[in-house]
Design goal:
The complex is a heterodimer. Chain A is α/β, with parallel strands linked by helices. Helices cover about 35% and strands about 30% of the residues of chain A. In chain A, the strands form 3 sheets. A 6-stranded mixed sheet of chain A has the order 6-7-8-3-9-10, sandwiched between helices. Chain B has 12 helices and no strands. Chain B is an all-alpha fold. Classes of the chains: A alpha/beta, B mainly alpha.
């Protein structure tokens, strides 16, 4: 593996990916991917189905080979030792379905390097955290998909990881199951101070949980940043309503560098570009346009996603 | 700790439990057959008309040899092959190997611990057969006298059986790592045994109808035939003990060298392959 990206490493980051590339024959699944997850982030890794999210996560975790690029967890190159601080779920978590949840977790404790004397307490802790204490003796094959996802999160929490990587954790769940998982993830981030990297194609899910996002399409990262910054800076629009639509249209035409569309009911949707909303408002009022509503509208995550994946 | 987890997982497999039951069956089979043989001899006398004495009856050592001879013939090697292969292949298919690799554990360590778990099972299976054949053998032969080298021969039998089992198991694990498929693992077992059957058929042809053809061929091209015969003898000398129904104790030492190369080779290649492969 070689380092092809010139992006510098970030101090104090939980996860950093630089120049990640993975191909399958002539198909480029992930190309020159750079991303940074800061400690404390809930990072939404967004992309349409087949964008390369899961492949990228498998590469980050060393499950599949990277053609190029580097991955660091808490400043440490991806390795067996670095995985000590990480919990992960890739796609639907797999278990030994023929035996109990407790035994599955006990075996996972062995792999996590948790001493025998501490395993019982650790299993009790994670089961309580995900609300499966009462069902720990049941065979996993009797679990619903939602319960399996929660059990997967419980397993990922063994050993008190500082970073959780979750690949589409609400995929296939009913609305109630989605809500439960969403609340659990939010609680883990807020109460347990766990940095979370969550991939999804469900924008509403990510918007409800994440503070930062990266949007990937066809293996290439299109956009990365905090949701608040992106929604404020990307595609600001202003909804302006007037009882005199003709006057409103004339007034808007006089202002350079803006574009607008006008509805029949006298509402204009203005894209101000570089023009400040206050300046726009002042120009219309001093021009004698009767303004009954002037509503700046920031872009939604959906707007940003659609723009980035267009 | 990984070793304990892997061992528990392996021993809870249906194939493993069935295998131990089969090992127990063969442990009882040897003493049973010897007891039956001794009883028949006492009841009906020796075929040559000689009087039956305590020395002429089979002792407990024969019970143990019979048990191990029978268990190595086909069924136990098949079970060991299946267990070795399936312990890897089913976990690729169920994706539990992927889950293990998400933890702070190296791939070499995971492979070695799975192999050690398999070694433990082989020891357990042989211990079951030994304990039952020895215990019941001693009881059912009423502690009959045994030959001077009985303990040496017993140790040799155990060693040969154990190493042969490990050869089978390691080959199966290697096959499972390469194919990552339950079906292919079972198919590779079929290929191994088909090769054995093919060899057996070829030998039968050789010893019967083929002999006249060989003599004609030898008469026409004696030098070429000598070369072929030389190669055949050489191959027979170096074939691993599990070829031709695990007649392990009758093999020359060269067969064990081949077995060691196969075992260590498949172990090394299996680990290298596993360390580098994608586990999505």
């Amino acid at each position: 593996m070689t380092e092809v990206s010139s992006a510098p490493w970030t101090e104090g980051a939980a996860l950093e990916v630089r120049g990640l590339r993975r191909t399958y024959g002539s198909h480029v699944a992930v190309s020159n991917l750079d991303l940074t997850v800061r400690t404390g982030d809930v990072y939404g890794f967004l992309g349409p189905n087949g964008a390369g999210k899961t492949t990228a996560m498998r590469c980050m975790l060393g499950l599949i080979r990277r053609d190029e690029g580097s991955v660091r967890f808490f400043g440490q190159d991806e390795s067996v030792a670095a995985r000590q601080h990480i919990g992960a779920i890739i796609e639907i978590p797999a278990f030994h379905n023929w035996t109990s949840a407790y035994r599955n977790l006990r075996w996972a404790c062995a792999y996590a390097g948790i001493p025998m004397s501490e395993q019982k307490a650790e299993i009790a802790r994670v089961l309580e955290r995900v609300g499966l204490t009462d069902r720990q003796g049941g065979k996993v094959k009797t679990y619903s998909l939602g319960m399996k996802q929660r059990l997967g999160i419980a397993r990922a929490l063994l050993g008190k990881p500082k970073l959780l990587l979750l690949d589409e954790p609400t995929n296939g769940l009913d609305p109630k199951g989605m809500k439960e998982i969403r609340e659990l993830i939010q609680s883990l981030a807020q109460d347990d101070d766990i940095t979370i990297f969550i991939s999804s194609h469900l924008l509403s899910e990510v918007q409800a949980m994440a503070n930062r996002v990266g949007i990937i399409q066809r293996g290439v990262l299109r956009l990365e940043g905090s949701i608040s910054e992106l929604t404020q800076t990307e595609r600001l629009t202003i909804r302006v309503h007037s009882s005199a639509p003709e006057q409103l249209a004339e007034g808007l035409k006089k202002i350079p560098e803006i574009s607008f569309t006008l509805d029949e009911d006298g509402t204009a949707l203005v894209e101000p570009g570089a023009v400040e909303p206050a300046h726009l408002n002042r120009e219309l009022v001093t021009g004698g346009v009767p303004i009954s509503a002037f509503i700046p509208q920031t872009a939604t995550l959906e707007d940003i996603f659609m723009e980035a994946t267009r | 700790m990984i070793y304990l987890a892997e061992t528990e997982r392996l021993f809870r497999r249906t194939t493993a439990i069935f295998g131990l039951a089969v090992a127990a069956f063969f442990g009882l089979l040897g003493p049973g057959l010897i007891f039956f043989g001794n009883t028949m001899a006492v009841s009906f006398g020796d075929q040559s008309g000689q009087p039956i004495t305590a020395e002429s009856l089979a002792g407990w050592d024969y019970a143990v040899y019979t048990s191990f001879g029978a268990r190595s013939a086909l069924i136990l090697p098949v079970i060991i092959f299946l267990l070795g292969g399936l312990s890897m292949a089913t976990e690729f298919v169920s994706k539990t190997t992927r889950e293990d690799l998400l933890r702070p554990v190296s791939r070499v360590s995971l492979f070695l611990n799975k192999w050690l778990a398999l070694v433990t099972w082989v020891i357990a299976a042989n211990a079951v057969t030994l304990a039952l054949s020895l215990g019941f053998g001693f009881v059912l032969t009423f502690g009959s006298e045994v030959g001077d080298n009985a303990f040496v021969d017993l140790g040799y039998t155990l060693l040969v059986t154990f190493t042969t089992d490990l050869g089978f198991a390691t080959l199966a694990m290697f096959g499972a790592v390469v194919t990552r498929s339950v079906g292919a693992t079972v198919a590779s077992l079929a290929v191994v045994f088909a090769a054995q059957v093919g060899l057996a058929v070829a030998l039968m042809f050789w010893s019967q109808g083929g002999a006249s053809l060989v003599s004609q061929f030898t008469a026409v091209t004696p030098e070429l035939m000598d070369t072929i015969m030389g190669w055949t003898d050489w191959i027979a000398l170096w074939q691993p003990p599990f070829v031709l129904g695990c007649q392990a104790t009758t093999q020359p030492w060269q067969g064990y060298v081949t077995l060691a190369i196969l075992t260590i080779g498949s172990m090394t290649l299996g680990m290298i392959r596993f360390a580098r492969m994608d586990v999505p």
